[in-house]
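Q: Please design a sequence for this.
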């Protein structure tokens, strides 16, 4: 988590302008949010050793920073001025109607947002849907795959999102086969997860970057084992997208979902669901 925060700092330190354009910001692979204009940023291949940019340029985009030192972006980023402006524009659309260019702005955003997110995670636009939160995306997968039909089971582990684990524990208490891989010392080897996957596994659900401790899951190895046994893989990527490189095609997952209020600098109620063709 500390490394993630440092990386976030380097990203903002290299922001070169306060002029906010949604498309430029997304193409720089730093932020994404439905209905929101984003800012322009430059990112190095690796963090620079001696940041020299004027921090006031990017600090001014987050009014909360005028009175606080904020280090909990992994929980959710403070509301930015560009997100506030975009939210207000959306409210104005419903308050005043689509005249004065309001409808055109909304149509442009809705027409481009899926493609922009798809480019960020290296998949096709047709594989991206809009949902309201990460958990809704995962629930859609559960409802569609129906992993408990015909004696199947779900595999997950202790680093998956706690709300999801609560859901799976409920299914387990209802008599469904749910295999949650635990560890007493918080040092969970990926081999233990792989060992839980067999020919009756229908779905494996894991979190790419854990919100507990920042652990990066070996999702690619898990997907390889799952697919060998005919199972599908869902990845919760909310803690990853926007702060670490995410290539869903390379990870070889079948589904992924993430909300926008963390490293994508958006708001609650906006999320993406990836479904592989």
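A: Design:
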């Amino acid at each position: 988590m500390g490394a993630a925060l440092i990386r976030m700092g380097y990203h903002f330190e290299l922001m070169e302008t306060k002029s906010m354009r949604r498309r430029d910001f997304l193409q720089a692979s730093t932020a994404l949010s439905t209905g929101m204009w984003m800012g322009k940023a430059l990112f190095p291949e690796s963090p620079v050793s001696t940041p020299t940019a004027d921090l006031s340029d990017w600090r001014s985009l987050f009014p909360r920073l005028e009175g606080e030192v904020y280090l909990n972006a992994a929980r959710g980023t403070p509301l930015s001025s560009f997100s506030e402006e975009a939210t207000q524009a959306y409210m104005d659309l419903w308050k005043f109607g689509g005249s004065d260019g309001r409808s055109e702005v909304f149509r442009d955003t809705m027409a481009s947002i899926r493609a922009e997110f798809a480019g960020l995670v290296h998949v096709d636009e047709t594989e991206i849907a809009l949902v309201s939160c990460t958990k809704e995306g995962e629930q859609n997968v559960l409802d569609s795959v129906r992993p408990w039909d015909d004696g199947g089971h779900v595999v997950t582990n202790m680093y998956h999102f706690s709300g999801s684990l609560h859901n799976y524990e409920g299914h387990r208490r209802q008599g469904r086969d749910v295999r949650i891989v635990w560890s007493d010392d918080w040092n969970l080897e990926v081999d233990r997860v792989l060992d839980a996957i067999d020919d009756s596994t229908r779905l494996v659900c894991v979190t790419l970057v854990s919100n507990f401790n920042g652990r990066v899951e070996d999702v690619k190895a898990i997907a390889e084992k799952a697919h060998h046994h005919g199972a599908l893989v869902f990845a919760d990527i909310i803690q990853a997208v926007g702060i670490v490189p995410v290539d869903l095609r390379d990870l070889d997952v079948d589904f992924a979902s993430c909300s926008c209020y963390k490293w994508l600098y958006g708001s609650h109620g906006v999320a993406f669901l990836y479904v592989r063709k």
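Q: Thanks. Anything notable?
A: The two ends are 33 Å apart (CA to CA). Residues 238 and 258 are 4 Å apart (CA to CA).
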